[in-house]
Amino acid sequence: MTFLKSLLIKLAIPLLSIFFGFFAGAIIMLVSGNNPITGYAALFDGVFGDIYYFGETLRMMTPLIFSGIAVAFAFRTGLLNIGVEGQLIVGWLASVAVGVMFDLPFVIHLPLALLAGAVAGGLWGFIPGILKARLHVHEVIVTIMMNYVALHVSNHFIRNYMLASGQRTEFIPATASLSSDFLRGLTDFSRLHWGFLLAIFACVVMWFLLWKTRKGYELRAVGYNPNASSYAGMNVKTNIVLSMVVSGGFAGLGGAMEGLGTYGYAQILSSFTNLGFDGIAVALLGASTSIGIFLSAFLFGGLKIGAANMQASANVAPELVEIVIALIIFFVASSYLIRWVLNRLQSNREGK
Amino acid sequence: MDYVIEMINIRKEFPGIVANDEVTLQVKKGEIHALLGENGAGKSTLMNVLFGLYQPEKGEIKVRGKTVQITDPNVANDLGIGMVHQHFMLIDKFTVTENIILGNEPKTKYGNIDIRKAEKEVARISELYGLRVDPKAKVEDISVGMQQRVEILKTLYRGAEILIFDEPTAVLTPQEIKELMEIMKKLLQEGKSIILITHKLKEILSVCDRCTVIRRGRGIGTVNVSETNQNELASMMVGREISFVVEKEDAKPEDVVLKIEDLVVNDLRNVRAIDGLNLEVKAGEVLGIAGVDGNGQTELVEAIVGLQKASSGTITISGNETTNLSPRKVTESGIGHIPQDRHKHGLVLDFSVGENILLQTYYQHPYTKNGVLYYPKMYEKAKRLIEEYDVRTPNERTLARALSGGNQQKAIIAREVDRSPNLLIAAQPTRGLDVGAIEFIHRKIIEERDKGRAILLISFELDEVRNLSDRIAVIYEGKIVAVVDPKTTTEQELGILMAGGKLEKEGEPI
Amino acid sequence: ACGQADEEEGQAGTPADTQDTTDEETGDDTDGEADAGDFNVKMVTDVGGVDDKSFNESAWEGLQQFGQDHGVEVDYIQSSDASDYAPNLNRLARDNTSLSFAIGFLMADDIYSVADQHQDKQFAIVDVVIEDEDGNTVPNIANITFAEHQGSFLVGVIAGLQTETNHVGFIGGVEGFLIKKFENGFKAGVKAVNPDAQISVQYAQDFNDASRGQSIANTLYSNGADVIYHAAGGTGNGLFTEAINRARNGENVWVIGVDKDQAEEGAWDGGNVTLSSMIKRVDQAVYQVSEMTMNGNFPGGEILEFGLDDEGVGIAPTTDNVTQESLDAVEEWKQKILNGEITVPQTDEEYEEYLASL
Amino acid sequence: MDIISTLNLIIPTAIFAATPLIFTALGGLFSERAGVVNIGLEGLMVIGAFSGIVFTLIFEGLGFGAASPWVALLVAMLIGAVFSLFHAVASITLRADQIVSGVALNFLAIGLSVFLVREFFGRGQTDYINARIFRESVPVLRDIPIIGNWFFSSIYPTSFVAFFLVFIVWYVVFKTPFGLRLRSVGEHPMAADTMGIKVNRMKYIAVMLSGALAGIGGAVYAITTSANFGGGTIAGQGFMSLAALIFGKWHPLGVLGAALFFGFAQSLSIAAQQIPALANVPQVYLLIAPYVLTILALAGFVGKAEGPKAIGKSYEKGSR
Ligand SMILES: Nc1ncnc2c1ncn2[C@@H]1O[C@H](COP(=O)(O)OP(=O)(O)OP(=O)(O)O)[C@@H](O)[C@H]1O
Ligand SMILES: Nc1ncnc2c1ncn2[C@@H]1O[C@H](COP(=O)(O)OP(=O)(O)OP(=O)(O)O)[C@@H](O)[C@H]1O
Ligand SMILES: [Mg+2]
Ligand SMILES: [Mg+2]
Fold first, then answer.
1. B457 and B426, same structural domain?
2. Is the domain of B289 the same as that of B195?
3. Which pLDDT tens digit goes with each residue over D135-189?
4. Which end of chain B is more exposed for a tag (fewer CB within 10 A), N or C?
């Protein structure tokens, strides 16, 4: 009974937040002279109206799930990883580099390329991790700085060693590719690729790692209370580093999804991909839980894909979606309000 | 009647709990009025209501006969009510003066703080009431006793006439407690009235005029202290009889379990905190460490359990040297450790009670297999210990945060004792707990001693050290300056040793 | 360079006859004969958006003009992210768009795959040539490129003639094949009229960092350059800011704008620092290709290079700050380029060869 | 080039690049000193840049002439303060996680400002402003050898305002009752509460101050540098300001030093390409230099940065 009730509240908060977010978006559309019903109909249509767009939504979700997991994983261990963006960029580059440079059978090539992405991202996470653990350097600044370093370094590598045409590298060969004719066929030629299944798997892995393993227990303990953890004989420093490495590894895999799945190459980036920064929002909306991340990545992916249709067929500026996302996060974060209202309702009922 | 304070039928609710239920408290002018009750009885809540931090749901407050609405601490200040909080309300990084003047700062004509004038004023008041403080010192650098004097000065600076002390003695050394009692008497002479919350019945009996008892949020009654005794107060409070003397036989010490030789430890600021310390604890005895806070107790414990590096010297446990091993290695060589700050070091408050109980053993078989946790086994174990150690919790999956201090402490003790360590280090094991919980913990410690464990007890509570220990080692400036027999040493004598003095008489080492 | 096949004078507003000699007939375009009734043209912008004051906007203007002139439905979809290109192009293809434009070389790979999935649909892309694995063009994609190097050459001529310090600068956005065309063309133009001029080149590696642009401009001007040409998008804003600041302090410094007439950006209450701009008539190109397609001559698989000849590139109409001497020289060099007397370099290697040949 | 002329090149640019960071980081200082983490500085700068440009254009239209950008700075300050209420309400009154609410603010700022630009201008960018703030040289002082060249010969008046503000903020935070109360709220809100300080009101004031200053920071950037506003105008400057705040250990002078350091590293990386000795260094090294230097500086000699004790927690009366 209490379990049901708490589950209900847990669900009510995000659902109500999403509702309020869309509601506020509708008001903005009204005020700016658009019809919110056509606007949202177009948005909805842009996600579910055609299997192609649905496929694209799932494709868009894929890196968001990884970056969301990356943020959440660090968050669970008390660290704020703003550097997912950079870790994702180096992961993208490294996976494509392995994809392009080697000539191997599929069963080795693809895993190796994925591994390269994870390792590169992990390395990018290792630096702020070790600095935090050894020298108490604030991870937020280091990760912010590492984002810029990643952007420039990866552009440098592509420009000088891997440039094929225009701004990008060679295409990776089929042996390193995640793209799936089956999934494409299923979704009418969307770019949905096997990475989507990997992302689901990653959700399970995160859940299992954090909640079912010894290491996960330690990581959470360190996150909640480093003092008590060191009293209990855990190595706080190692765990901080490990957490950043794993987090970076997930982020790097997110980059590999783009490199080996969506695009099939790496490119000179003239600005950040924002996939990493969006990951912060995905993780927060998903309350740093696996299932939450999956669902909020779907919401974000859908909003992003649907926004184009909203603009195309209802003439609503795509920025509206960003406003809606912001408001949803706001309401989720302010769940105190919703909780308070729910409590009020409940105690009124019990009072009678 | 000339009551300065009357709180009549106060009711205060928190979500899901009634903290004060029709409690009445009447304080006469010029008296020290004790407020007594178990942990969580609602004492602090009642005082926070009086101080304007909480708003009561029901009830009336009269100050000097006039009904008032105390909507926030400013109103309380204006009414002349000051409060010394259970958990100090001091800002570590500020100086003593800054802490005192906060919210009431003297200004120069340029609008900045007139810090000179403030310091002078602080010096003046502290002189007046005999409260020695250094106005320019940072709070993080001064002793707990001085911090408390700062708290008192804060109220006096604001011209408080009615002072509330919430468990002021829990953190003080005997000397400091004595000084505090003197200060209180002085305050009375100056015409102030005092409300004192304490769990120590002896203190109530020695300084208070009247005592109001609350139990589970309800007022039980008010008695004249001169007409009551320890047992009556205790049974009013708990609702049953309590024994105060720890029943124990003489110790039968056996082999040396912990042996420390010439230990030197530098603290975090690289100051020598332990300075050539020697100590032995034998199986089957309780060795109590008596000392004023800040003489190296923390560093001693942390060095033994491996959390601080020893610069030189050796630590041996059951014949194996453990100097500078990792905490886990040390723990595995047979140490149990009840840390002094249970929230900071003892528990992961956001873990469940069960996860906390396994905090030292989660990685061992059968709780972990191949790196994977086996939760059913963990919870099975936790359930057993919760029962055995009478940890009052809805179930083993409840967050540790939701437990009261006493029950949190019991969970820690369950965890540490159950591993059957050769050496059990108990640092401040009963700090801030009520008599019921204290009784339980004391019994448990003696039980373990009688099973042949070596117990190292560190406590600022001299009574506790004297009651439980078979030998008392006095620590002063990082050295053991004397080891004495509790049966033949008086409190005064211990006090002298703790202050760095020497005993004229037979204080031979034993 | 292969698009140079077209030698005819093109007049603005009429479709340039750009039959590629290597082009074979690539199947009959069934959509080609569609009457104006269901003929429609739409475009996908790159992340700059339809109102980027640059080539997306220019393309959209051309398309709107075309729509007006011929009563044809035109529309655009904006991409907010590189990963939007493919779905957006797909959306157009699915909506039975008669001709879908991809504006910007960033969409190269996406249009290739979308065109492959929708072989019955007609596409066109700006700024890049799409080739398949074997290096052949794709039959249902028209490739629109510009001879930016030629236009840059002409503004280089102006810079070379009007520099007083004998030192000019170039600020690039992100280094790459396309921006290199601007750089090398510009340098060649400067050297053509002023072989001793010093040319400083710096890339911001960012198209959207005005602060960086300003810092670079500051460095270049401080080091003696007095004319700076940019091909750096929003980063170029900083160049204008710096130049205006200096002009206000009485310094004689100039900016050469890019893509469109940037006289507006250079205006300040005491004058205008914009010397000239290299304009790129994306609107013309889009208009013409649309018209060709409407008339059943979809140039699929062809490479259309819009150059000096068809006014695809050139110097901006605002010439208030350009001397008559420079204007004459521009005309003179334009003819030399048009009649093949000189070949304007595009890559670093070509530039080296060009220098050697001077 | 010799050292002096190199520095002549680098130092004014460094100051110029540091200026918006100084404003914004000082804003962040107020908020974080009062215990409210402000990741939303980026978004607040966006709002500032947006209002700065839009109102300069409006005032130009109203015939304010050269005063337009200055008045617009004030408006940007006000709008920044109002917009920061989003963060304040969420994180103080509604007890939202401060990081989450800051992230939400960033999303909202960029979405809303670009949305509005489209509504007002029918496109994704605003027009260019004509009335700008220009660099000035200070008579007499500019003639001081060396120093005159660095600090007084061509410098934005806004940079002087920023420097001046550093000292004002220092005075306010460390010398006035307001500052003492502000810091007490960030260190130990309950203690402050028992001393009769209105904790949440203090936090609101602090967050709004941060909005006001970040608003100025964004507006200064837009008005002095980009001269128009679009979605990409503010790209990371807010995060750099946050880094400057932490790097500067939440102290106004530290913030000044950190911001100048960032500016210096950036301008060095740009000037280096024109310095013969450094011209052959691959550009990537110069591009990443500011960031790497910051990391090294933090790791090497700055070490542990410890913020206000109660930072990031919302205050609830009577909680422990
Ligand atoms: N902020 C709060 N929110 C919810 N419940 C609270 C809060 N503070 C106290 N309580 C509840 O009120 C009861 C009384 O708490 P209070 O702190 O007054 O006890 P106490 O008598 O001071 O105990 P102790 O001796 O341990 O200090 C507690 O048992 C607790 O359940
Ligand atoms: N903020 C709070 N919200 C909810 N319940 C609380 C809160 N604070 C305390 N409690 C409840 O109050 C009860 C007693 O808490 P309290 O802190 O008074 O115990 P304590 O023995 O004084 O602990 P401590 O040793 O920490 O002083 C517990 O049951 C706890 O669940
Ligand atoms: Mg209490
Ligand atoms: Mg208590």
1. yes
2. no
3. 888 888 778 877 777 777 788 999 999 999 999 999 999 999 999 999 999 999 9
4. N
Instruction: Tell me the DSSP string of B73-134.
Output: HHHHHHTTEEEE-SS----TTSBHHHHHHTTS--B-TTSSB-HHHHHHHHHHHHHHHT----
Residue in D174, D183, D187, D195 to test binding to B, most B beta-carbons within 10 Å? D195
Q: Nearest to residue B357, comparing CAs of D210, A261, A217, C347?
A: A217
Question: pLDDT, tens digit, for every residue of A71-123?
Answer: 999 998 889 898 999 999 999 999 999 999 999 999 999 999 999 999 999 99
Note the pLDDT tens digit of each residue in B369-391.
999 999 999 999 999 999 998 88
Predicted pLDDT at B430: 87
What digits encode the pLDDT tens for the residues C220-246?
A: 998 899 999 999 888 888 999 999 999
Q: Provide the residue type at C159 as one letter.
A: A
Q: Which residues in chain C touch residue D66, judged by CB atoms under 8 angstroms apart?
A: 269
Domain that holds residue B327: 243-334+421-510
Residues B227 and B100 both lie in one domain? yes
Look up residue D219 and give its two tokens. Answer: 């507006």
Residue B234 shares a structural domain with residue B247: no
Q: Is residue B357 part of a domain?
A: no
Compute the mean pLDDT over every residue in chain C, rounded to the nearest whole number. 85
CA distances (Å), origin D210, targets B149, C274, D87: 37, 38, 11
Query: How many inter-chain contacts (B to D, CB under 8 Å) are there?
Result: 71
Quick check: do D and C touch, 3+ CB pairs under 8 A? yes
The correct CATH number of D3-299 out of 2.30.30, 2.60.40, 1.10.150, 1.10.3470 is: 1.10.3470
- For chain B, say whether A230 makes contact (Cβ under 8 Å): yes
Residue B364 resides in a domain: no
- Phi, psi at D305, each rounded to 5°: -105, 115
- C44 in contact with chain A, both atoms CB, cutoff 8 A: no
Last residue of a domain, one of B238, B273, B303: B238
Q: How far is C207 from chain A (nearest CA, A)?
A: 6
Rounded-to-10 torsion of CA A117, A122, A128, A133: 180
How many domains in chain B? Answer: 2
pLDDT tens per residue across span C133-143: 788 899 999 99
C214 to chain D, any CB pair closer than 8 A? The answer is yes
User: Ligand 1: which atom is nearest the Cα of residue B217?
Assistant: 14
The enclosing domain of B35 has a CATH number of: 3.40.50.300
Nearest Cβ partner for A327 among D108, D247, D290: D108
pTM: 0.84
Q: Do B185 and B61 lie in a common domain?
A: yes
Residue B124 · residue B131 · CB < 8 Å: no
Same domain, B100 and B182: yes
pLDDT in tens, B19-54: 899 999 999 999 999 998 877 788 988 999 999 989
Q: Which two tokens stand for residue B192?
A: 């102030």
**Is the CB of C295 inside 8 Å of chain A's CB atoms?**
no
Contact across the interface for C234 and D226, Cβ inside 8 Å: yes
Q: What is the ipTM of this complex?
A: 0.81
pLDDT of the residue at D302: 58
Q: Which residues contact C53 (CB under 8 A, 6 or more apart)?
A: C260, D123, D125
Q: What pLDDT does D253 receive?
A: 95
Same domain flag for B254 and B198: no
With contact defined as beta carbons under 8 Å apart, do A87 and A273 qualify? no
